[in-house]
Design a protein that fits this description.
This protein is mainly beta. 13% of the residues lie in helices and 40% in strands. The protein contains 2 helices and 5 strands, in the order βααββββ. It has helices at residues 23-32, 56-63; strands spanning 11-20, 68-79, 88-98, 103-112, 120-130. Strands 1-3-4-5-2 form a 5-stranded antiparallel β-sheet, covered by helices on one side. Strand 4 (103-112) and strand 5 (120-130) form a beta hairpin. It is globular.
Length: 134
């Protein structure tokens, strides 16, 4: 299966996506995950930024369009320090498409404000399955 059109990039970058870890959204995520820690964001909270409207076009382009079913294969998170509620972050994404088997790996570096070094990051691996064969 090849979900990519001939000549389409195997790697796509999307840098400088601005987000805010608003307290209400953090608390809703925490409640949905049954995470009752008092301080900080749940460790998996940054994953929700993958679904932002400004990220979806890049994600969709690298998935390969109709007929491709993305199956969550794995994810990992790394932290230099904890993320904070009501803080502003900048996200730099890299979408990398590989084959044999078909996968899309999404990496994201998270920067607080205008800091030059990331404070956290995550990577998500999606196995790309032909929806007609699933």
């Amino acid at each position: 299966m090849s979900g990519r059109d001939a000549g389409s990039p195997a790697v796509l970058r999307l840098d400088g996506v601005r987000v805010r870890a608003e307290a209400a959204a953090v608390e809703a995520f925490r409640a949905a995950c049954l995470d009752d820690r008092v301080d900080g964001l749940p460790a998996t909270y940054p994953f929700r930024w993958l679904t932002l409207p400004q990220v979806r076009p890049s994600l969709s382009a690298m998935l390969g369009g109709e007929g491709v079913l993305p199956v969550h294969e794995g994810q990992s998170f790394s932290y230099e320090r904890a993320l904070r509620r009501d803080a502003d972050y900048r996200l730099d994404f890299e979408f990398r498409r590989t084959s044999a088997p078909e996968r899309l790996t999404v990496s994201c570096a998270i920067f607080e404000g205008e800091e030059p070094a990331p404070c956290a990051g995550f990577e998500t691996v999606l196995r790309l399955v032909d929806a007609g064969r699933a």
